[in-house]
Amino acid sequence: MITALRTALPLALILPLALCLSPALPTTGQDAPASIRATPDDIRAQLTNEKGPIRDWYAARQHQPAWDGPALAALAGFIDGLSRHGLDPALFQLDRWRLTWQGLPPTAAEAARVDIATTHLALYVIQSLAYGFVDPVTVHEKWEPIPRTLAPAQLLSDALAQGPDRFAASLEEQAPPRDPRYRDLVTTLARYREIAALGGWRSLPLPARPVKPGEPYGDIPLLRARLRAEGDLPADAPQIRSKVLDPGTAAALRSFQFRHGIDPDGIMGPQTMMELNQPVTRRLHSLTITLDRLRWMPRDYERTSHLEVNIAESALRLIHEGRSLTTMRVIVGKKGLHQTPVFHGRLRYLHFRPYWNVPPKIAREEVVPEALADPGYVAREKYEIVPAFEVSPDKALPPTRENLQKVAAGQLSIRQGTGPHNALGLVKFIFPNDNSVYLHDTPNHSLFQATDRDFSHGCVRVSEPDRLAEFVLRANGDWPLDTIRAAMQDTTRPNRRVNLKESLPVYLVYWTSTIMDDGRVRFDQDIYGHDAVMAARFGLPASGDQ
């Protein structure tokens, strides 16, 4: 049984194999003449050079050919329809396959080769719809493959058994992710394609300076049309001839700003104008890429409790029983310096009033130089030089120049004492990984008010650590919010570890478009350039070439 894309031939190999033959099977709804149809013996002979479970698939059907004219027409229609999911038929070179399928093969052996190659194509396409056209491990080196429980070969068998009229519908019902946000993004993609088909939206003239609510702007009707196009202004909003940024238009502008990661102040500033004047193709590309990223997730993703950190959005969602309980602001790694990696793990324990065990690179490049330049730095920031991170506080060594140099050389370690001054705040959440990345509190909550929240060294700082602790400790019992807050303030139990009775999946994802809890679509900046990499895999133009 074929369960993963790797079991099928790459499309780049399948297509030359098929095109080297004379055109294969007719697409007129009639079977090829018996003299040139592949027989079970022909199929069996061609499979001797095959590797992988496709041999089992044909054996299960007694090596009967899978594709006649109506079945090929149904497969072509299915591939055509994948455009709705952001999968352009050109990704699968459908036009060239149609040429291959026209006419008749010169021999039964070659008909068998085309039949097998077409099955590889069908499995490749089903796999792309189920688990993504782009393999996540090829673009995010920290991403561990997620077990793939859906069998494309079984879906193909079921679809063929239902006949040509139900072939495409069967696959579209069974293969895509179940997450409601996926279906909403498919609908959103269709809506934005309608906007594009109508010519998109007109660019707005740039004002000489930012325009505040109540101030004049000469193109208010054009601005309202722009806001109406994406639904920030209701479709039935009255036409007005105002020359000032009126309250209704300003409210719609704030909705637009929030959906694009901009401080919703209702002011037509440079960043707002830049987003208003982005072409609709930019939004289409973001939606296309995000749909593929959603296909990377587990099949039961929306039904299992988990934490979801959307790095591009700087947001953490607590997911339980198929719905988002809350969305809280987070701080992620600094773009260009300390990117938060895209990966997943399982949250296993947390520490109340944790130590911050300073990573060797940060110790060497940041803490030690500060301490050498300022003799009072170590004491003021409550750092401790220790032989090892796990030792008790009474084993701390004096912050002499010699000891600091040993820290820089990796011979000693340095950590920050517990308490509200600690860089990790009053609680940290550990999902063991080789990235040294975790979720934690912070002493500087003012940074959560910023619109762009990429300030960290790679870890994720959370704005509501007490409520996050309440969520992850549900299975433990006896951890109401007041008990959690008391533990965060308990100076008698520093670095207190609490193991979770049930580990909790954590996914650090990177979605530049997503459906928010209120059903609206949100677009965020490609702060790490990951969209550009994905765009190249999809054959989409770079952002500057749109």
Structure description:
- The chain starts with 10 loop residues before the first helix and ends in a 9-residue tail after the last helix.
- Helix 6 crosses helix 7 (152-161), helix 7 runs antiparallel to helix 8 and helix 10 (220-229) packs across helix 11.
- Strand 2 and strand 3 form a beta hairpin.
- The chain contains 19 helices and 14 strands.
- Residues 1-9 and 19-35 have low confidence and may be disordered.
- The protein folds into 2 domains: 5-176, no CATH class; 300-523, Beta Barrel (L,D-transpeptidase catalytic domain-like), CATH 2.40.440.
- The strands form 3 sheets. Strands 1-2-3-11-9-8-4-12 form an 8-stranded mixed beta barrel. A 3-stranded antiparallel beta sheet has the order 5-7-6.
- The protein is α+β, with helices and mostly antiparallel strands and 546 residues long.
- The chain is globular.
- The longest helix is centred in the first third of the chain and has 24 residues, at 108-131.
- It has helices at residues 11-19, 40-46, 54-60, 69-81, 94-101, 108-131, 152-161, 164-174, 180-197, 220-229, 247-259, 270-276, 280-295, 360-373, 377-380, 401-409, 465-472, 481-489, 530-537, and strands at residues 306-310, 315-320, 323-333, 343-352, 356-357, 383-386, 413-416, 427-430, 439-440, 454-456, 460-462, 496-509, 513-515, 521-523.
